[in-house]
Each structure stands twice: as C-alpha cells, then as structure tokens.
Design brief:
With 170 residues, the chain is α/β, with parallel strands linked by helices. The chain contains five helices and nine strands. The chain has helices at residues 16-29, 43-47, 66-71, 102-113, 147-168; strands at residues 7-11, 33-37, 51-55, 84-90, 117-119, 122-123, 135-136, 139-140, 143-145.
Length: 170
C-alpha cells in the first residue's frame, strides 16, 4: 500500500559510496521511489515530485559537487513551495572540521529560498567538528554521514533518519 506522495531520490549515479547509501535508504523506505541521476537531470525531471531525497556530499573545503552546481540553474526560477526535501551527504569531520557537511547546508538554504520545506533534520550529537553551514542549533539540516571516520555508525544513522522520513513524507 502506497502511503507516501511521489518521491524522487536524486544523486550522481557515478558516486559509488552514495549509491550504496541510496540502496539502503530505498530498501528501508519500502516504498516506490524513483531514482534520478542528477548528472543528467532536467528541471522538468526535478519538478515532478512532491517529496525529494537529495544526496549532497561536501567536496573539498565546503563546496557543492560540480554536478549540483551545474544542475541548480535548471530550477533557478522554480517555486518549490508545497515540496518537501530531505538531504543527506557525506563529510569528513577530521579532514575538514571547519566545514563539515556544508553541502547539506548550502542545498538546504537554496531550497528554502525557493519555498521548499526541509525535513529530516538530525542531531549533531556524536560528531566532532568545528563548524558547518548545515548546523541549525543542535541539528543538521539533514543526515550527516562520515564514512571516513565513523563508518560503523552510518547504518544506524540511516535507519533512524528513514524512520523519521516515513512520518514527514506523508
């Protein structure tokens, strides 16, 4: 029985680590989720959903991946009100402690400017970093994963996040 509105999960199909995380998320959601390769997605592809899961890893010292930078102009004039966005992404707390998972925060800010609602916030507890654009009080604007330093915690974090999304994506 389908309980969630139409949901799309956007990520780069070329990213091996992200693809592994996406498979776990889809399995746990136990709903029909459409996967979309952000490397080739159009604005039309993006606008057809009500709920979104976006994989937004942080590159280098707090940047969005090139494929997201190249895609964002396609939705520059979009009205994203009435749409819900859950964002997850990887970062490196030890290598880049000043901008841990900034990609999540950059994307959340852009989506909110266009009227989008960010769901799936997670606690900052258990992380050791100096700063993050994704931080909102004691929460991140999505699911922060650190495969480099805390890989053993990823499955549990994904499971808790997906359980929350099931409620928020109704």
């Amino acid at each position: 029985m389908r309980i969630m509105k139409k949901t799309g999960i956007f990520y780069s199909f070329r990213s091996v680590k992200t693809a592994q995380q996406v498979k776990k998320i889809i399995k746990l959601l136990d709903e029909e989720i459409e996967t979309v390769d952000v490397d080739i997605a159009t604005g039309e592809d993006f606008m057809k959903f009500s709920n979104y899961i976006l994989a937004v890893p942080t590159w280098f010292d707090g940047e969005l991946p090139n494929y997201w930078d190249e895609f964002l102009p396609a939705i520059e004039d979009a009205d994203l009100s009435a749409k819900r966005f859950a964002i997850f992404g990887g970062g490196d707390q030890k290598g880049y402690p000043e901008n841990f998972v900034d990609g999540i925060g950059l994307m959340a800010n852009l989506l909110e400017e266009k009227g989008g609602q960010i769901v799936g916030l997670t606690s900052t507890e258990g992380y050791d970093f100096e700063g993050s654009i994704a931080q909102r009080g004691d929460q991140f604007a999505g699911l922060a994963l650190d495969i480099e330093n805390q890989a053993a915690l990823s499955n549990e974090r994904i499971e808790k996040w997906v359980e929350a999304l099931k409620k928020e994506f109704q």
